[in-house]
Design brief:
single chain; 481 residues; mainly alpha; globular
Length: 481
């Protein structure tokens, strides 16, 4: 165990934990319990909105899995990852003010809530809820696993003990604090992520003897490591380009990101979030993946790629500083998993229980059920994460693609195409979800691209054909006129 790193890491974790609890006690608003618990009362400022989007998007894959793949593949994976720089900009620009205004008019608290009011269909709600629960369980498991491996690498504890410590910490402050606690801790965590990334990059360049020396070492080991095509030449231009859809434009359909685009306070906050969010994501994504590549000459024999970041941080930094820097990936994981927990919880409580099981349930009962469901979900994911795969990034990318294929057209067309109806939305969700699972199982790279591209195209065709094929008198939403 590295004692100094362990103390500073858990010290940072404790500060974030206390901040979340304090803000949940101080900031009680006059909005309803569910609007406050799941959406922070729609009062996020520009900085908080930018940081919570960046921190939520920056997950275990960005800080643990992605740099691990970059360690194996070289600069080709860095090129692929920088696509994510414009993710925050794309998301806010595509959804835009129109989405936030429409969601507020509908009094929507979740993405499914928005779809319910837009399409006026029970089946759209049930299909959306089912898709979210299925795919996000895998995403949450990936975050749990990343945190367990990170704490295990630093403290020397067993994987299962490290996992248990992380799960208990997150469950307490998410269950008690709700969305407002999550967004405040996201702001702290986002700041730690930026500073920690820069410190680690500088330290690893110095330790490697400078960028030129590192490049020479990489070329001497395998010339492909410094080309755009990957260590074995498998990163084709078509495949890399398709990642523009998966981790760029397609992110607009992720429920955990969509809910943030309906929670900002005013236009000024929206514009400020556009700029800050793009800069923060750019700094984190580019530099963390460069760190993964630059770590190879310094520690050339790492077997489990997910452990590259904690091991190289302990190698090139003093123990106490490594603990603080490694709070960055832990912060990213915390901010992603707490948001996902709230999202799945709100899907079950708000979209299913309150809509179809007990619409007139008192606030006290809703509060109790919301907290209980959040805690139970966390425990279920903990059980899933007990037996982890070798590289968590593939688990994370799989679920991201599934959600994008199911939701991108019901959300985007629901905002901008008045003729779009519930039959189109149902057809798009079913086609996107089934085709994506089928492609992943039997034909993972159709036409040399990631399968999410083909699934999104099929989903769009299904949406348009079903809308034109089946008339619906309630299709045109008054709020879109």
């Amino acid at each position: 165990m590295n004692l100094a790193a362990t103390i500073t890491l858990f010290g940072a974790l404790a500060l974030i934990f206390l901040a979340g609890l304090l803000v949940s006690r101080r900031n009680q608003s006059n909005t309803s319990f569910m609007e406050d618990y799941y959406l922070g009362g729609r009062r996020l400022g520009g900085f908080v909105l930018a940081m919570t989007m960046s921190a939520t998007y920056g997950s275990a894959s960005s800080f643990i899995g992605g740099p691990g793949v970059a360690y194996n593949e070289g600069l080709g994976w860095v090129l692929l990852s920088v696509i994510q720089v414009a993710t925050g900009y794309f998301t806010l620009m595509i959804l835009g003010k129109r989405f936030a205004i429409t969601a507020k008019k509908y009094k929507a608290i979740t993405m499914v809530d928005f779809l319910k009011h837009r399409y006026q269909s029970k089946w759209v709600v049930l299909l959306s809820s089912f898709s979210i629960v299925i795919f996000l369980f895998s995403t949450m498991a990936a975050q749990w696993i990343g945190a367990g491996r990170l704490i295990e690498s630093i403290t020397g504890l067993s994987y299962h003990s490290a996992l248990l410590i992380f799960v208990v910490t997150v469950l307490i402050y998410v269950t008690v604090g709700g969305f407002r606690a999550v967004t405040l801790t996201d702001s702290i965590q986002g700041s730690i992520m930026v500073v920690g990334t820069i410190i680690l990059l500088i330290a690893i360049i110095i330790s490697g003897g400078g960028i030129s020396a590192i490049m020479n070492d990489l070329q001497a080991e395998n010339p492909n490591l410094i080309t755009p095509y990957g260590a074995d030449g498998t990163l084709s231009p078509m495949y890399v380009s398709s990642f523009w859809i998966l981790v760029g434009v397609g992110v607009v359909a992720l429920p955990q990101i969509v809910v943030r685009a309906m929670s900002y306070q005013n236009t000024s906050a929206f514009h400020r979030a556009l700029i800050i969010g793009t800069i923060v994501v750019g700094v984190i994504m580019l530099n963390m993946h460069l760190i993964g590549v630059f770590a190879r000459p310094i520690l050339p024999d790492i077997e489990v790629a997910d452990t590259v970041i904690p091991l190289v941080a302990l190698e090139v930094l003093p123990g106490w500083l490594a603990g603080i820097v490694l709070a960055a990936p832990l912060a990213a994981i915390m901010s992603t998993v707490d948001s996902l927990l709230l999202l799945v919880s709100s899907t079950i409580v708000k979209d299913i229980y309150s809509n179809y099981i007990q619409p007139k349930a008192p606030v006290k009962r809703i509060r109790k059920i919301s907290m209980t469901v959040t805690a139970v979900l966390g425990l279920i994911v903990y059980l899933i994460a007990i037996h982890p795969p070798d590289l968590i990034i593939w688990l994370n990318l799989y679920t991201i693609g599934g959600l994008e294929a199911a939701f991108i057209w019901p959300v985007v067309m629901g905002i901008y195409w008045k003729k779009g109806n519930k039959y189109g939305a149902i057809a798009a969700i079913i086609t996107g979800m089934i085709s994506y699972i089928a492609f992943q199982a039997f034909y993972p790279q159709p036409f040399g691209m990631h399968s999410v591209v083909s699934s999104i195209v099929l989903s769009l065709i299904a949406y348009v054909l079903a809308t034109y094929s089946v008339k619906d008198k309630q299709t045109v939403s008054d709020s879109l006129t």
